[in-house]
Amino acid sequence: MSFISKFLPKRKPVEIKNNIPKEKASIKKTFAVYCHAHHGTSGEKLCPKCTALLATVMTRMNRCRYGITKPICDRCEYVSECFGARQARDFLTIMNSNRGRMFLKHPIMSVKHKFLSMGVDYARYEQQKKIDDKVKAKEKAAKERSKEKKSKK
Ligand code: SF4
Ligand SMILES: [Zn+2]
Q: Does residue 120 line the site of ligand 1, with CB under 6 A?
């Protein structure tokens, strides 16, 4: 540590938020809204199918390969691998077909979930852009090398 750095303000360590509890709460509410509307249930009770699916989702989230830095499950590229193809399809149906009702019943939670989705989409877009830029840079370098070779001949 240099002499000057002793007097500089200390940088705060980057805080990694654990969004899993909030995501779980949001998924539980979404399932409840969906099950009430489609399967005639009410209150805390869900039908057996939704209960089983929700239990699977909660268990998988506890063992998520990403840990607490996980993306939200309905935007995750491993959702089929993680939940199984049929359960992933049912899960995505519930999460996607329910947005209007969720917004009416739980507007704040719904908006927060939307922001999280946008965050995941943006991070994925940035990641893809970096990959594309690297590929383009490699292609450009290869073209320039072949041009140089031709001009030397
Ligand atoms: S679907 Fe993706 S984010 Fe969700 S628990 Fe599985 S691996 Fe983690
Ligand atoms: Zn149900």
A: no
